[in-house]
Amino acid sequence: MPEATDAPVIMGNVPGSYALSVFRERHPVLVRQVRDALPYSLDRLRALDRLLDEVVRDVMEPLDGSAHDHAAWARWGQGRFGGRWVDVPFLWGESYFYRKLLEATGYFGDGPWRGVDPFGPVKQAELRSAAVDDELTALDHAATLPEHEQAAGVLLGSLWGNRADLSHAITASGGRDRVTDLVVDDSALLWSLLRDRPPGKVCLVADNAGRELLPDLVLIDHLLDRGLAAEVVLHVKPYPYFVSDATPADVAESLRRLAAAPGQAGKVGGRLWRAMGAGRLALRAHPFSCAPLPYSDMPDDLRGDFASASLTITKGDLNYRRLAGDRFWPPATPFAEVTAYFPGPVVALRTLKSDVLVGVGERELAALDATGSPWRTTGTHAMIQGRA
Ligand SMILES: O=P(O)(O)OC[C@@]1(O)O[C@H](CO)[C@@H](O)[C@@H]1O
C-alpha cells in the first residue's frame, strides 16, 4: 500500500474523471442558469457572458484588481492564471469558480446587486416546496416514537438531507435510490461522545440550505433539548457558494419556516429561535468556510473554536473533501490518520458525491465495486465516519 501522504491531489484534468465533468458540464450550465434566474442588468449579463466564455475557452483569468479579496486569490492562485481551469486542483478550481460567479453577478460590488444571492430563487423554491411540507409534517409521527428511535431518526434525517444538494442536481441523473446500508457507520461513536460526558459545546459545520439545513436544525434541537449539548455553534458560509450552501440568511429563512409550521416542526422552530436569543445556539460564518483550502490549513481562531468543542459534526461531501484532504487516498487509510490534525473529536455525515474516500477496507470496497454502480459519486451511498 502506498504511503498515505503520497496520495495524489485530485486534479480537474483527468480524462473521464468526475472532476473533469464538473468543469466541462456543470459550470457552463450553472452560469447559464444564474443568468436566467434574476432580472440582471446589462452590465451583469455581460459579466456573466464573459465568465461563460472564460469557462468554455478554458482559460483562467484573475479576479479584478478592485475585488476586496483580490490579494488573497492572487496569492492562492499564483502560477495558475492564464492556464487552463482544469489544470488546477479540483477543490481549488471549484472554489474559484464560485468566487468568480459572485463577482460577475455583482454580489460584492457597489451596485444594486450587492448582497443579492444568485442562488436565492432556487433556494426559496425548495424551501416553499410541498416536499418540505411533507418532511415537516413527518416530525409529528417521529415525536411519538421511542427515544432511541427518535435519536436514530434525527441523525439519519440530517445525514440523508445531504442528498438535497442543488449543485449536484445539475448533472446527477436524478431519482437514484438511496442505499440504506451505510458505507461506514460510526453512529455509536457519535452518541457515546455526546452521552458519556457532561454536555459541552457541539460545532455543526453545515452544508446545504433548505432540505438539508432543516433536518440539521432538527438534529441541533434534539441535542439541546435532550441535554446532549450545552451549546451548539452552527457554522455556515459567509456568502453564497456551491449553489445551495447555507448562509446566515438561509438559517434565518429556515428558522422562520420551522417556527411558522404547525405541530412538532413549529415547536422545534420556537425552541431554536429562543436558543439563538439565549446564546445556546450561535451562528458563525467564518471566511475560511469559503476558502479553497483543506481544514488542515485552518486559521488559529477557527482551530480554537473546534478545539473547545466536545464534538464537531461536519456535513456533506465538500466538507469531507476539506476534512480528509481532496486526494485519491488509498481507501483503507484510517480516518483517524487523515484527520489527526483536527483539534478535537470529529464526525462526518456525508452522502458520497466525489472520489475522496478513507476508512473503507478492501473487502467492503470490492463488494461495493462489484455492484457496478457509480456509488462513489452519485449520492446513493452515505457514511457516518468519525474519531474521538
Ligand atoms: O458538499 P455537498 O453539497 O454534499 O456536495 C458538493 C458537490 O455536489 O459539489 C462537488 C462537485 O461540484 C462535489 O464534491 C459534491 O458532489
Automatic annotation (TrEMBL):
* Cofactor(s) required, per the database record: Mn(2+)
Give yes or no: UniProt keyword Transcription regulation.
no
Q: Does the keyword Hydrolase apply?
A: yes
Give a Pfam family name.
ARMT1-like_dom
Which InterPro entries does the UniProt entry name for this protein?
A: ARMT-1-like_metal-bd_sf, ARMT1, ARMT1-like_metal-bd
Reaction(s) this enzyme catalyzes, per UniProt: beta-D-fructose 6-phosphate = dihydroxyacetone + D-glyceraldehyde 3-phosphate; beta-D-fructose 1-phosphate + H2O = D-fructose + phosphate
Ordered alphabetically, the record's keywords are: Hydrolase, Manganese, Metal-binding
The identity of this protein, by name, is: Damage-control phosphatase ARMT1 family protein
Which taxonomic lineage does the organism of this UniProt entry have?
Bacteria, Bacillati, Actinomycetota, Actinomycetes, Streptosporangiales
